[in-house]
Amino acid sequence: MLLQTVEQVRRIFRIVAGFTLLLAGVVMLVTPGPGWVVILLGLGLLAAEFVWARRLMDRIKREGTRIKDTVLGKPESPRPEDPPRPPTESPASGDQIPS
Question: Which domain holds residue 51?
Answer without folding.
Answer: 6-72
